[in-house]
Design brief:
407 residues, Spore Coat Polysaccharide Biosynthesis Protein SpsA, Chain A, Glucosyl-3-phosphoglycerate synthase, alpha/beta, single chain, two-stranded antiparallel ribbon, Nucleotide-diphossugar_trans, 49% helix
């Protein structure tokens, strides 16, 4: 993906293959003398048993500039948490494992519920939110990065490239979003980004007219990437969704809270592959079907908050417009895949487009039927105002869990 194109909206940091990993890490070591970096790893226990995470940890073990690694562990019982502590102990850096299902953490959840500040349903968004709260409570990091735990092609250069733009004190960036080509096993991947997000953003522009927010989202080469880094200053006021809209939600918050010149995207890999979600066409509560609905709702909410009026006629028009644009895009993707010797199942992809078109209407109906819905997790600023001791108590809970269960 080496080029030097700038889209005019979001600065792009390219990989022109002219800087080595060693050079990047030497600079980062200098920067981190005054700007400490923490990394968030949101993980399901099942990922400890996969092939991706052991390699990720082997790569991270050689990263010299990380101050702290915070692992958020979901869907684990006591024995599994004990195993997780041993599993992550291969990391030489300062690290903690937050057992989100522990009795102590459930007590934290109960306190939030009692205040009317529920952190939402269990999922990646809630996991990341608690990890962010932990890092803020530590009060010693200037930069926080996040990436998924299922990256099969992980190399530590991904992290160095991701954090560099927000760590370099000479750069103005508050948020860096990673991008890369989604290819693996001889196939063109990234179905939700290719077949839903890009076409629906074009369709929205046609249906509701020009919006700076739409141009902003369209500027990102891979808006659904799970990799981003940001300076910690904006974290207390970050409002993120607890569902599959996390990635779009973070970009939307950057649009709302940060100056346009303080956001960039950075090319972090030549190839990227990770766990693929099933389409789940028969179950809208799972897989890519659920993801497509949550992503659409996230965009509709943001546009409504900026004054866009939605109704059933708008959503019907949007569905039809999206469908035609997505089919046209599929033609381009098919030709691109063929040109590069990759496979792409046109029939399966057209069926996925049909599902996404249906789910645009589903998301629109949910949006119209629930105007009072509060889809975002409360900001940590609000949590601290409501319960000034909660963040410190969470630090104590995590420390106590690790002390009690460490072998």
């Amino acid at each position: 993906m080496a080029d030097f194109h700038q889209n005019g909206n979001v600065a792009t940091m390219h990989n022109l293959r002219s800087t080595t990993l060693q050079a990047l890490e030497r600079e980062l070591m200098t920067f981190t003398q005054s700007r400490k970096i923490s990394l968030i790893l949101p993980s399901l226990f099942s990922e400890l048993e996969g092939e991706a995470l052991p390699n990720i940890l082997n790569e991270l073990a050689n990263v010299p500039y990380l101050h702290r690694i915070v692992i958020g562990l979901d869907r684990a019982d006591a024995d599994q948490y004990r195993h997780a502590l041993e599993f992550f102990d291969r990391l030489p850096q300062n690290h903690v494992v937050i057992w989100n299902d522990s009795p102590r953490m459930r007590e934290i959840h109960s306190r939030l519920d009692a205040l009317g500040l529920t952190p939402g349903e269990q999922g990646k968004g809630r996991n990341v939110w608690f990890c962010m709260g932990y890092i803020m409570a530590c009060k010693d990091s200037a930069v926080v990065a996040l990436h998924d735990c299922d990256i099969l092609t992980y190399q530590r250069e991904m992290l160095a490239r991701l954090v560099y733009p927000v760590t370099n004190p000479d750069f103005p960036y508050q948020l860096a979003k990673g991008f890369y080509p989604r290819i693996g096993e001889g196939k063109l991947n990234g179905r939700v980004s290719r077949l839903l997000v890009s076409p629906v953003l074009i369709a929205l522009k046609k249906v509701i007219g020009d919006r700076d927010y739409l141009d902003y989202l369209r500027s990102f080469r891979y808006p659904l990437s799970g990799e981003f880094a940001m300076r910690t200053t904006p974290l207390p006021d970050l409002r993120i969704p607890s569902d599959w809209g996390l990635e779009i939600g973070v970009l939307s918050e950057a649009w709302r809270n940060l100056a346009p010149k303080s956001v960039c995207q950075v090319e972090i890999a030549d190839i990227y592959d990770h766990k693929h979600q099933p389409v789940s066409a028969d179950d809208a509560a799972k897989g890519l079907s659920r993801m497509s609905i949550d992503i659409c709702k996230s965009m509709f909410r943001k546009l409504a908050a900026d004054g866009t009026v939605f109704n059933e006629e708008v959503f019907r028009t949007l569905k039809a417009t999206y469908y035609r644009i997505a089919l046209d895009a599929l033609e381009s993707y098919y030709n691109d895949a063929k040109f590069n010797g990759l496979s792409l199942d046109r029939h399966a992809e057209e069926m996925t487009i049909e599902l996404f078109a249906h789910n645009i209407m589903e998301a629109g109906q949910v949006f119209l039927d629930s105007p009072a819905e509060t889809p975002f997790i409360p900001t940590w600023s609000r949590v601290h105002a409501a319960d000034p001791m909660l963040m410190a108590n969470m630090l104590s809970a995590v420390a106590a869990d690790m002390a009690d269960y460490r072998a």
